[in-house]
DNA sequence: CCGCTGTATTAAGTATACTAATACAGCAGA
DNA sequence: TCTGCTGTATTAGTATACTTAATACAGCGG
């Protein structure tokens, strides 16, 4: 389900949280589904539980999951999930567009890229 | 000309090379202009010359400047500069667009962001 | 020759990110 | 209540990136 890439410069916890985000947003985990426990996922991936904990803490901080001590970590409401992810993507899109504007790229030049990608 | 932000998480050498890229691309430094010397810029910014050297080496590696031992570092051809920067921006734009597609954002949703930014 | 350029090397210090080990705290079923 | 699972907090070790420093070499030009 989750593939770690140790050659990737991104930290492991981020690879995990990003992958989980994606799975949740596309609906692979319905809302309120319990995620694998910190320790079991650690065993599955052969890494330290703290790294999983960090990934989960990040997901909770950002609002993707909610955690209950003694019970587990659970997927937040589907609608909220998507909104969060959309906001993330919009932000990066806006950054790129602003940079394009800053160096004087024309609307045509920008639109050409956009249209080629849909 | 260059403002360093020590609160920024980006390394200093990157802040410098990025700022110089921008200045060169918008034409603040015409092509073949000599950049400040490694040592003089280091004094201006009150940092170690090695950090400037790293910024310049990065710029040269990426093709934004060319350096001549004993003479200085010089701005590459204007056209080349812009192409390099455009390629960088396009790459980020494409990444963002692909992510948008991955989570199922509609064309309308994407276009709304794009239009609001021009 | 002298004083400026860029460049290379080596070392050290520092900060930060990442991972690990361990202990604590809450929940629920046997 | 005990046991075994959950999440969470604390602390420490490790690795890596970044920056600084000191020094040396090499090329250019007045």
Task: Describe the overall structure.
2 copies of one chain form a homodimer. Chain A is mainly alpha-helical and 118 residues long. Chain A has a single domain (12-117), classed as Arc Repressor Mutant, subunit A, CATH 1.10.10.10. Helix content of chain A is 59%, strand content 7%. Chain A has 5 helices and 2 strands, in the order H-H-H-E-E-H-H. Chain A has a two-stranded antiparallel ribbon with strand order 1-2. In chain A, strand 1 (65-68) and strand 2 (72-75) form a beta hairpin. The longest helix of chain A has 25 residues, at 78-102. The first copy, chain A, is elongated, with a radius of gyration of 18 Å. Chain A starts with 11 loop residues before the first helix and ends with a helix. The interface between A and B is medium-sized, with 30 and 30 residues. Chain B binds a DNA duplex (30 and 30 nucleotides) through residues 9, 11-13, 37-39, 47-51, 53-54, 56-57, 67-73.
List the helices and strands and how they pair.
The structure is a homodimer of 118-residue chains.
Chain A (H helix, E strand, L loop, with lengths): L11 H14 L12 H8 L3 H13 L3 E4 L3 E4 L2 H25 L4 H10 L2
The structure holds a DNA duplex (30 and 30 nucleotides).
Number of strands of chain A: 2
- Under CATH, the topology of chain A can be stated as Arc Repressor Mutant, subunit A
Q: Could you state the CATH homologous superfamily of chain A? A: Winged helix-like DNA-binding domain superfamily/Winged helix DNA-binding domain
- CATH architecture of chain A, by name, is Orthogonal Bundle
Lateral arrangement of strands in the main beta sheet of chain A? 1-2
Oligomer: homodimer
Spans of chain A of at least 5 consecutive residues whose pLDDT stays below 50 are none
Number of structurally distinct domains of chain A: 1
As a whole number of angstroms, the C-alpha radius of gyration of chain A is 18 Å
Task: List the secondary-structure elements of chain A in sequence, H or E.
Answer: HHHEEHH
Mean pLDDT of chain A: 93
């Amino acid at each position: 389900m989750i593939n770690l890439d140790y050659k990737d410069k991104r930290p492991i916890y981020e690879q995990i949280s990003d992958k989980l985000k994606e799975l949740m947003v596309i609906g692979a985990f319905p809302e309120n589904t319990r995620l694998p426990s910190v320790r079991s996922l650690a065993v599955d991936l052969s890494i330290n539980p703290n790294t999983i904990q960090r990934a989960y803490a990040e997901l909770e901080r950002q609002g993707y999951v909610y955690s209950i001590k003694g019970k587990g970590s659970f997927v937040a409401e589907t609608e909220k999930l998507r909104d969060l992810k959309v906001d993330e993507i919009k932000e990066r899109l806006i950054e790129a567009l602003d940079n394009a504007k800053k160096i004087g790229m024309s609307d045509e030049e920008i639109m050409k890229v956009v249209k080629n990608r849909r």
